[in-house]
């Protein structure tokens, strides 16, 4: 009996024009342009798309990007990614803007990294929509494009089929998140491990905004140790109050220090870790739902289902059906990473 045909590679278009950032081009290339199928990652087809594919696109630092497809290739793409800009006010060529509008009109997912949000705004795609960019540029984005609802502190934002991210490293977060949405948490984790980065970060870019330098936080080591303990014992029924006690703090003080260190609340962080643990168990094992819920620390399948609906807009059963590896075994580890 013939083996089933391999699924067609997911097609990604990197949109290039003079002024795009070499770092963002490298991130997009690292996530989708490296073959990791031998490690269980999906197959991708990444194309560098430009108005004139025969002309190298100059980037800062003496680097050139050599396009390999014309803008018409966006008609075939499953995902369009716009790098950030070295100069955030760099105007994109009108053919690029028109191609982005057509891609969006077809329902193709379009994502912009960092100041690439200005490119989507130039195209008129962000009018009446929520978007984010680097925290230094949020006020400028509001002034230049008053029709955009600028969210000040997210790492990345979705509005329909449009995605934008905060600065620099948040572009990695968004790219891995887009892989996770299309191919599951384990696929994103394979790529993240190869890049030696976290599969996902919780919190917002508020934790990176410049403030007067405070005195050294003597509780930082205690908080890190508490987070590590929580990750190692997710299946146990501890609460945020239990974590505060382990750190030797009152719940209020613990919450304040935790938010300052991570950009999110202890409860939100804990629930995110439990959802991530459940995702991995659903992908890697055939454990029954109540056991997945127990190992991830939710206590009941009902509670797990509620948090999946709130965070992933799906159910655990639908998630397993979409992202199971096909080699599940009930003996897999319950760890979150």
Describe what you observe in this structure.
The chain is an alpha/beta fold and 337 residues long. The protein is built from 13 helices and eleven strands. The chain has helices spanning 22-32, 94-105, 116-122, 138-144, 169-183, 185-195, 220-232, 240-247, 251-262, 266-284, 289-296, 301-312, 316-323; strands spanning 10-15, 44-50, 57-59, 63-65, 69-70, 79-82, 109-112, 130-131, 149-150, 156-159, 162-165. The chain has a seven-stranded mixed β-sheet, sandwiched between helices. Helix 2 links the parallel strand 6 and strand 7 (109-112). The longest helix is centred in the C-terminal third of the chain and has 19 residues, at 266-284. It is globular. It starts with 9 loop residues before the first strand and ends in a 14-residue tail after the last helix.
Question: TL;DR of this structure?
Answer:
It contains 13 helices and eleven strands.
By DSSP, the count of extended strands is: 11
Global mean pLDDT: 86
- What does the radius of gyration come to? 21 Å
Largest sheet: 7 strands, mixed
Based on secondary structure, the structural category is alpha/beta
The best one-word shape is: globular
Name the strands of the widest sheet in spatial order.
5-2-1-6-7-11-10
Q: Beta-strand level of the residues, as a percent range?
A: 5-15%
Beginning-to-end CA distance, first to last residue? 37 Å
Specify the helix fraction band: 40-55%
Helical stretch tally: 13
Order of helices and strands: EHEEEEEHEHEHEEEHHHHHHHHH
* Low-confidence spans: 204-218, 326-337
């Amino acid at each position: 009996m013939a083996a089933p045909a391999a699924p067609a590679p997911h097609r990604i278009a990197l949109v290039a024009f003079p002024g795009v950032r070499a770092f963002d081009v490298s991130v997009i290339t690292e996530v989708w342009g490296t073959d990791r199928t031998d490690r269980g990652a999906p197959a991708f087809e990444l194309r560098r798309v430009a108005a004139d594919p025969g002309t190298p696109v100059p980037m800062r630092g003496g680097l050139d990007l050599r396009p390999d497809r014309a803008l018409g290739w966006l008609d075939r793409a499953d995902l369009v990614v716009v790098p950030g800009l070295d100069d955030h006010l760099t105007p994109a060529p009108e053919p690029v803007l028109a191609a982005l509008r057509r891609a969006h009109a077809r329902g193709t997912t379009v994502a912009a990294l960092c100041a690439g949000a200005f490119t989507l705004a130039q195209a008129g795609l962000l009018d009446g929509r929520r978007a984010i960019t680097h925290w230094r540029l949020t006020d400028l984005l509001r002034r230049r494009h008053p029709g955009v609802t600028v969210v000040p502190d997210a790492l990345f934002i979705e509005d329909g089929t449009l995605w934008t991210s905060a600065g620099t490293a948040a572009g990695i977060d968004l790219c891995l998140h887009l892989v996770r949405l299309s191919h599951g948490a384990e696929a994103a984790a394979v790529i993240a491990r190869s890049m030696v980065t976290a599969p996902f970060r919780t919190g917002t870019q508020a934790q990176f905004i410049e403030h007067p330098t405070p005195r050294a936080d003597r509780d930082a080591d205690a908080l890190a140790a508490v987070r590590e303990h929580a990750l190692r014992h997710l299946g146990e029924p501890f609460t945020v109050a239990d974590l505060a006690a382990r750190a030797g703090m009152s719940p209020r003080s613990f919450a304040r220090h935790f938010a300052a260190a991570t950009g999110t609340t202890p409860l939100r962080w804990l629930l995110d870790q439990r959802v991530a643990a459940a995702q991995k168990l659903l992908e890697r094992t055939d454990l029954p739902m109540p056991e997945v819920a127990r190992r991830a620390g939710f206590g009941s399948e009902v509670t797990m289902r509620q948090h999946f609906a709130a965070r992933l807009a799906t159910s655990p059963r639908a998630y397993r059906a979409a992202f199971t590896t096909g080699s599940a075994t009930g003996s897999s580890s319950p760890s979150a990473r």
